[in-house]
Amino acid sequence: MDSAKNTVIDAKDLSLTFETNDGPVHALSDINLNVEEGEFISFIGPSGCGKTTLLRVIADLETPTAGSIMVDGLSAREARLARAYGYVFQAAALYPWRNIERNVALPLEIMGLSKSERDERIKRNLELVNLAGFEKKYPWQLSGGMQQRASIARALAVEPDLLLMDEPFGALDEIVRDHLNQQLLSLWNKTKKTVIFVTHSIPEAVFLSSRIVVMSPRPGRIHDIITSDLPRDRDLDIRETPEFVSLAHQVREGLREGHSYDD
Amino acid sequence: MMTRAWLSNKFGPVVVVVMAIIVVWYGATILLNSPFQKDIYKRGNISNWTTTQLIADTMQQKRPVMPAPHQVMHEIYKTTVLKKITSKRSLIHHSWITLSSTLLGFAMGSGFGILLAIGIVHSRTLDKSLMPWIISSQTIPILAVAPMIIVVLNAVGIQGLLPKAFISMYLSFFPITVGMVKGFRSPRVLHLDLMRTYSASRWQVFWKLRWPAALPYLFASMKIAIAIALVGAIVGELPTGAVAGLGARLLAGSYYGQTIQIWSALVMAAALAGCLVAIVGLAKTMVDKRMGNTSVGANS
Fold it and tell me: Would the CB atoms of A83 and B198 count as touching at under 8 Å?
């Protein structure tokens, strides 16, 4: 790693235990993770391994019960208040009473940006996700893939250096998913943003990431971190190469060792 | 096929129902008025009456137990079209008096109801402390409270429109509060989380999420509220000594046994309520259109 780069995420001995009626649930246990500026990190693991919870801790949507977490050199809460990140949820979470343009405008209105600044950012980011021409449509008039693209445009319009994405393409079919993966990758390549991406798809994780964090359940913990030396500039054909296949194999082995395939 | 197309359009069913009501009404008129009519025949020593004559006579009594529809319509025609609006005997004059206190009370009730709901949603203490009082306020019979409200407000110098509007408000804030509490709490966790990632303030969350999410609930509540605001205004007119308004017409009618006057006031009140609810429905359609027909389409 280039030592001149800034640390964006710094988690030390992070744990999160939910108290439930059936006793405590250890969602996260002793998480240690460093993310440098410009990385594309994937969290992969079976459901219940805490990958979404970890992302929510970074976003200050959950509070850890032990350990520390720094985002951009600030506490998670301060980083959230400073709007240091953009968050893309599993579902598009568009407001049904706002058209696409006004949905993208939502965070910009909250930030108190001027009308002209808002319009400029809306136009630029909708073009980026290929939704130009759909400004006046309402969410229900768009397909699932288009809705998710609109929600990505909304997150990007905040112009965060850090993008947190929680299985954003999980509900989409494979063709649309491939297409969006490519778009996301070229966006990352162009903007040099830091991306943290939660997924349960091995090909998706390997295709997108510069590092893959393999997680395992009960308690939710990091089993292994695999560094990818695939070039930053990649296209879908790379998935046929031996390097790709070998990385995917490593990830699968990691998941197996972490008992992810056990019942 | 022609009739079927006619039945399935917007006005067909309405016309059918109205006709059915009129038929039942005429039946009731004959049934309820014939004992008195037979009594009249007996006292007048008329023994050669026919059924046709009886039926005709039941529909033209001066103070019938049950006035016939055409008698009521004639009375309404007489007291609306043929009377000057400024006249004390004009039904439009009385309707307007009731309508104005209904609208004022409804506006006050909606405002108060929304404010209460905002308080309840944003404060756990208010939620715990206010809700039982709000519910028990509605279990008190309004007929018992109305005279006291009028008397108390009169004692502090508030007269005229406001005391009646106050009773309308007392009745109409309740469905608004209950509906809006539900509406303000209707946003999904996901939509609230999104606001949190933007570090939005409470007021931004309110105006940009809770308020628009609650609007469908507001219109549903307002339909109920405006109808009972009218009831409140009429009830409020009863203890004022029946000076003016539809309530006054009802009371005066019952003092003097003017059943036709009572029924024409009742029909007028029902028509008024129908119009008010329809106006709320129209407003809902307009707002729906501006919000992308949300209630039709989206689940996202």
Answer: yes
Residue environment code for B261-295, b if the CB has 16+ CB neighbours within 10 A, otherwise e: bbbbbbbbbeebbeebbeebeeebeebbeebbbbb
Q: Which residues of A touch B194 (CB under 8 A)?
A: 87, 89, 93
Nearest to A139 among B194, B215, B300 (CB): B300
Q: What is the pLDDT of residues A96-129, one digit of tens each?
A: 999 999 999 999 999 999 999 999 999 999 988 8
Share of chain B above pLDDT 90, in %: 50
pLDDT tens sequence across A161-172? 899 999 988 878
pTM: 0.84
Q: What percent of chain A has pLDDT over 70?
A: 97
Is residue A171 located within the same domain as residue A252?
Answer: yes
A97 contacts chain B (CB < 8 A): yes
End residue of a domain, out of A117, A136, A159: A159
User: ∠ CA A194-A196-A198 to the nearest 5 degrees?
Assistant: 160
The domain defined by B91-290 folds into MetI-like fold (1.10.3720)
A94 and chain B in contact, CB less than 8 A: yes
Q: Find the CATH number of the domain harbouring A38.
A: 3.40.50.300
Q: Are residues A176 and A218 in the same domain?
A: yes
Q: Which residues of B touch A97 (CB under 8 A)?
A: 212-213, 215, 291-292, 294
Q: Closest approach of chain A CAs to the CA of B199, in angstroms? A: 5
pLDDT tens, residue by residue, B166-188: 999 999 999 999 999 999 999 99
Contact check, Cβ <8 Å, A59/B209: no
The rounded distance, in Å, linking the Cα atoms of A230 and A251 is 14
pLDDT higher than 60, residue B298: no
